[in-house]
Amino acid sequence: MSKLPDKERALGMYQRMSLIRKYEERIYYLFLEGIMPGTIHQSTGQEACAVGMLYDLRTDDHMASTHRPAGHDLAKGVSLKSMMCEMFGKDEGCCRGKGGAMHTGDIEVGALVANAIVGGNLPIAAGVALAYKMQKKDNVIVCFFGDGATNEGAFHESMNAAAIWKLPVIYVCENNLYSATTSIAITCNMQNPAADRAVAYAIPSEIVDGNDVLKVNEAATRAIKRARSGEGPTIIELKTYRHGGHSRNDACQYRPKDEEKHWFDHDPVKNFRDYLITNKLATEEEVEKIDNNIEADIDEAVEYAQHAPFPQIESALTDVYWEGK
Amino acid sequence: MALLSIADALKSAIAEEMRRDPLVFCLGEDEDIPGGMGGAFTVTKGLGDEFGYERVLNTPISEIMLAGVCVGSAMMGMRPVADLQYGDFLFCMMDQLVNQAAKMCYMSGGKVHVPMVMRAPCGASNRGAQHAQSLEGFFTHVPGLKVICPSTAYDAKGLMKQAIRDDNPVLVFEHKLLYGSKRKEKDAISTVTEVPEDDYVIEFGKAAIRREGKDITIVANLLMNYKALEAAQILEQEGISCEVIDPRTLVPFDYDTVVASLEKTGRLMIVHEDNYNCGWGAQLGSWIAEHHIFLLDAPIVRVAAYDVPIPFSPVLENYVIPSKERIVEEARKLMKV
Questions:
Q1: Containing domain of residue A113, as a range?
Q2: What is the mean pLDDT of residues A111-127?
Q3: CATH architecture entry for B2-195
Q4: Alpha carbon of B139: minimum distance to chain A alpha carbons (Å)
Q5: Which among A21, A230, B124, B292 is most buried, taking Cβ atoms within 10 Å?
Q6: What is the pLDDT of residues A261-298, one digit of tens each?
């Protein structure tokens, strides 16, 4: 059992998890209504991974995300309004409408532009960590990737570099069992595609229940301590499950129903909510109030984003090269 | 002034920038192993002595990682100068260059930038098809990258210093036969010239007129600029006067200098070692045709490597790569139009 967190901390974590859940649900709804352009890769079901890993990062620490970035971004502190504006392709979006659902991020709060090339963020995170080291900073970067990314060459090259240079990077595999629609069991001969490979690089690894935010957070705390004190990288493999399909057109017909039931019953948000109440860290009313406030914030963000102006068309031709601040 | 080859000029540019700015560092395979080569062509040899091996980083043979580490560290304010040994290995890092480095500034809405330099030795030199390509044209097609190709020691120093100070990803194509380094290459051209020892930079997008003339404008880069100059000497004896322009940087490209020259000559020949189909000459030729066709008295001629992989046998390689004889021949034909 995890040590009981203090109330403020527990509610802080719950607030972020609930925000991610409700944000993703609203995005899904906006898509079904046909209001929102583009595509979506949702993180519903993986909230504990994002919040557990990122809760204790400082704003000047960094996070590198994937094509499924919303949870990571919200957990790192990218503003809800700028996320929603980006989803609608608006000028006030976190990438000024030039990124979209797979590239959200905001360097001001340490969220790198999310990376939609599987494994593409792994060597970049090593580079960020190398910069910390060269600049003698005690920062760390958390780099997320899916189970499928462990089969990329970029994975091997990045782990090796992180190991030889003892880089302050935490590589976090969110193993949700599927690379798009393909079971990881078909494409990898290991039970734990990231953690089992760690020994090949002499990098310490942990395998953690990715749907238990406190367990994730404990692993994060250990890895952050290692990284900040110059001991080098850690690989953390989080076992988790996405509630929806890979992307907007995926009805998930390839997943066994009993497997889905097992994981849906082990819902990270609902379980943590129950945990808070059972352990008297919060009352029903307090949790409800948090949820209601989030709903109101999301209502406001959607309303704001829908009415926000699109970018000036001419802006499509800017930012190809850096134009200074 | 100091007498420097291109390899030495690049080395002093990198060293001077590393002295000036603690955020500049260099990295690559065999970058500077004591007793090793200093890259494949001696450019970074000895830098570890002065700057230490934390700023002169010997990397694993991992091109994806090499480029990715440049992108990540550059976004954090560092100024990496990476050495690829052979430009052909650029294809191993394509995702990091094209999907990552080139697009980060844009995708972030201008919030981040990637000031990195990727050095890519290029050109055929009897090494076979996978250590021979001239890929500079390939990368001009990618918005977000800058592409430069210094062909003299003076330019090498000034352009490299500018590349390191540029806030965007810059690919530097360095021709193997122009390094003038101690490891003698067959058919190498000595590039040893007087180079100022003080600090100077050469602005990107400024072509150099290497020879003035009035009949034909020849635009040629890297080794081909030297071949064009040799051809121009021969042609002069036949009464054909060639103006030889070195574009020096391909992105950005100095069209103005070419146009000004065509106002005199009315005839355009483009020479590159890159192969014919969609080489950078295709862009220059079509741009001139699109915007200045009435300056032309004759069709545009492109002299380029044939559209084949570079063969090994010296006889075959010489045939595939444009020679001064081919340039002379094409120039004679052009004057008869």
A1: 7-317
A2: 98
A3: 3-Layer(aba) Sandwich (3.40)
A4: 15
A5: B124
A6: 999 999 999 999 999 999 999 999 999 999 999 999 99
A323 in a structural domain: no
Average pLDDT, chain A: 96
Tokens of B181: 């380094």
Chain B residue with CA closest to A60: the answer is B76
* Whole-angstrom distance, CA of residue A101 vs CA of residue A87: 6
ipTM at complex level:
0.97
Q: Is B165 on the interface with A (CB under 8 A)?
A: no
Residues in contact with B222: Cβ distance below 8 Å, sequence separation at least 6, in sequence order:
B122, B123, B134, B136, B149, B151, B173, B175, B178, B272, B273
User: Could you tell me if A60 lies within 8 Å of chain B, comparing CB atoms?
Assistant: no
CB pair distance less than 8 Å for A107 and B96: no
Q: Which of B69, B104, B112 sits opposite A130 (nearest CB)?
A: B69
The residue extents of the domains of chain B are 2-195, 208-336
Q: Is A324 a domain residue? A: no
Name the amino acid, one letter, at A72: H
Residue A1 has pLDDT above 70, yes or no: no
Cα four-point dihedral sign A190, A191, A197, A199: negative
Residue B67: list chain A partners with CB under 8 A.
123
Q: Is residue A13 part of a domain?
A: yes
- If pLDDT is split at 50, 70 and 90, which confidence band does B183 have? low
In Å, what is the CA distance from A128 to each residue of A12, A50, A226, B69?
28, 19, 17, 7
Could you tell me the CATH number of the domain that includes residue A226?
Answer: 3.40.50.970
On whether any CB of chain A is under 8 Å from the CB of B162, the answer is: no
Q: Is B25 on the interface with A (CB under 8 A)?
A: yes
Domains B2-195 and B208-336 share a fold: yes
**B 68-87 residues with CB below 8 A of A?**
68-78, 80
CATH C-level class of B208-336 = alpha beta
